[in-house]
Write a structure and sequence with these properties.
heterodimer; A: 360 residues; alpha+beta; Rossmann fold; OB fold (Dihydrolipoamide Acetyltransferase, E2P); 2 domains; 6-stranded antiparallel beta sheet; B: 258 residues; mainly alpha; MetI-like fold; 11 helices
């Protein structure tokens, strides 16, 4: 098991900075996802770790050894590519044996280890098939087996599930996650899919514009996003901008349009009279009877999506997205009340402003 | 639509006749029993093939052409593949320049390339001695065929396979030899077969750049036809055609669709 440290990593292409000095520590056996939109630098980071891109500045350490200037073949990494990058002229067994041959492992041992790896990725009966005779999921498992059979220090995965259909993708998520825990290998996973990042990772690193916006456990990234950008990228986020009525020791009292109040526990900083920006996830808002509700609104759109119902609600706080249970049905056009769970509202940083010019 | 199909068939058949008839005439004329190159042949005989086999001038010319073509192809194979790798993987702004540079001998009339080389080699004091000019000309003529085929095979595949090999511990060179080369080999080989045939058949370059002494087959045939008009020339041509067809057939068998 290996610990990876990225120290002030900079990568420029001419004048354009793809990575603006990112730092990240990855623990022994940790599964970390780099999550972000295309062009955010997540793939560039992975390429720098793999050694495909020469870094402009900074350092990458594996177990405190600087590997920044090493060639890819000397870094002891296993990598799974989005296109799988299998060797089409070699059978499954030959694909798996390649890395061991390169390491001059004795023939008998290669045979053993390849057999074990094929068992691990459940491909034993396809040993003599060529990649093009396999399904997408099987090819994916060959790529995984090929990367793991060499028992590398770290495992890098570059959007490995992007080319699979939805159902298979869900299966493979679990498969990769279980395999990673069983082998206990330090893993860096690049994806633009927030569900994938959150279900699989120990820690999610959200990146925008060549910088890390937040690196935290999936629950924290989702419930306590560092910025609004993160909040919106990892899920649907309603942002409420509310004036602070009073700030006390037991919490912050906020006024809602229409006269309702919210008592935000904790010590979020907000002076009376200032504005506070709060994030509420759609499933954290409940639809209730309009009379006496914290906030009133009207259902603008209603979409049934199997597991839940999605409501677009017009309110005095602007349009809000609410996820409701399928047991409760509210029709489009109906007046509703909204109920917030103050415990779960998350004040956004930098979201505090003055109330001047804003009608309460 | 009713009229189009028969019309299309007519056009198709005409094109084939137009392409194949001259070749058929040469082949049939080579079996002529008479003393002159005429068509239709006056009786069938293999006598001109026998005459040809005993004519050292033609045998030498065929061998000379074959060795020249093989050497030119070998050089084109290496240089063309390397140029293709550079063009596909590394060239950025200069990519188009590289492509045009390599393809220029294919775009320009052959005679222009030949004359340019002639001037050049006289300017540097070598002239047409030691077959250097001739050999260079043949390499330039054959290079585009290897280059184009190699570029196509490189572009049609995924670079990631070579990167994957690197992560598995292969050096740059090993990754190329074990992964990329086997994958582009069919394309490069097809290009080489074309290169060989082009070199074997080319006339202009050989005519201008050939020095004193023995000459490639097309030049020897041309010289022969200026003074003789026997079916022996047809017999030589027929042998040359059969060689070409065999080579193409072989290439198709080995590297064709699997």
């Amino acid at each position: 098991m290996t610990e990876v440290s990225i120290l002030s990593l900079v990568k420029s292409y001419g004048k354009a900075e793809a990575l603006k000095g990112i730092s990240l520590n990855i623990d022994h056996g940790e599964f970390v996802s780099l999550l972000g939109p295309s062009g955010c630098g997540k793939s560039t980071t992975l390429k720098c770790i793999a050694g495909f891109e020469e870094i402009t500045d900074g350092k990458i350490l594996f177990d405190n050894k600087d590997i920044s200037r090493k060639l890819p073949e000397d870094r002891d990494i296993g990598m799974v590519f989005q296109s799988y990058a299998l060797f089409p002229h070699m059978t499954v067994a030959q694909n798996l044996a390649f890395g061991l041959e390169m390491r001059r492992v004795p023939r008998a041992e290669i045979k053993q280890r390849v057999a074990r790896a094929m068992d691990m990725v459940q491909l034993t009966k396809y040993a003599d098939r060529y990649p093009k005779m396999l399904s997408g999921g099987q090819q994916q498992r060959v790529a995984l087996g090929r990367a793991l059979v060499i028992e590398p220090a770290i495992l890098l995965l570059d959007e490995p599930l992007a080319n699979l259909d939805a159902k298979l993708r869900d299966e493979m998520r679990g498969f990769i996650r279980d395999l990673q825990k069983r082998v206990g290998i330090t893993t860096i996973y690049v994806t633009h899919d927030q569900d994938e990042a959150m279900t699989m990772s120990d820690r999610v690193v959200v990146m925008f514009n060549g910088a890390i916006a937040q690196a935290a456990r999936p629950e924290d990234v989702y419930n306590h996003p560092a910025t609004e950008e993160v909040a919106k990228f990892v899920g649907n986020a309603n942002i409420l901008e509310l004036p602070v009525a009073a700030q006390g020791a037991e919490g912050t009292l906020l006024t809602l349009p229409g006269g309702g109040t919210l008592n935000l526990p904790g010590t979020a900083s907000g002076q009376a009279g200032s504005l506070m920006r709060l994030m509420a996830r759609p499933e954290q808002i409940a639809l209730v009877d309009p009379s006496g509700a914290q906030l009133g609104g009207r259902i603008a759109k209603r979409y049934f999506s199997g597991g839940h119902i999605e409501y677009h609600v017009d309110t005095d706080c602007g349009p809000l997205l609410v996820l409701g249970p399928t047991s409760q049905t509210v029709a489009e056009g109906q007046a509703v009340g909204l109920s917030f769970d103050a415990q779960r509202l998350w004040p956004m940083q930098g979201g505090v402003g003055t109330a001047s010019g804003v009608a309460a | 639509m009713q009229i189009v199909t028969p019309l299309l068939t007519l056009v198709r058949v005409s094109v084939y006749i137009f392409l194949i008839a001259p070749i058929a005439v040469v082949v049939l004329a080579s079996f002529n029993a008479g003393n002159f190159l005429t068509f239709p042949p006056q009786g069938l005989s293999l006598r001109w093939f026998w005459t040809f086999l005993q004519n050292d001038v033609f045998i030498d010319a065929i061998l000379y052409s074959a060795v020249l073509a093989a050497c030119a192809t070998a050089v084109s194979l290496v240089v063309g593949t390397m140029a293709a790798l550079y063009f596909v993987r590394h060239a950025r702004r200069e990519a188009e320049l590289v492509r045009i540079g390599v393809l220029l001998p294919l775009i320009l009339p052959e005679i222009l390339t030949a004359i340019a080389l002639l001037f050049f080699f006289y300017e540097i004091g070598i002239g047409t001695e030691h077959k250097i000019a001739l050999f260079t000309g043949h390499v330039l003529m054959t290079l585009p065929f290897v280059f184009l085929n190699a570029v196509t095979s490189l572009q049609s595949r995924d670079d990631a396979a070579e990167l994957a090999a690197r992560t598995l511990g292969a050096s740059r060179y090993t990754a190329f030899r074990r992964i990329t080369l086997p994958l582009i080999a069919p394309g490069v080989a097809t290009g080489s077969v074309f290169a060989f045939i082009i070199s074997f058949d080319t006339f202009g370059i050989s005519f201008i750049l050939k020095g004193s002494g023995s000459a490639p087959l097309p030049i020897q045939l041309y010289d022969y036809l200026r003074f003789n008009f026997t079916p022996e020339a047809a017999a030589v041509s027929t042998v040359s055609i059969i060689m070409t067809v065999l080579l193409l057939g072989l290439a198709d068998l080995v590297f064709g669709k699997k």
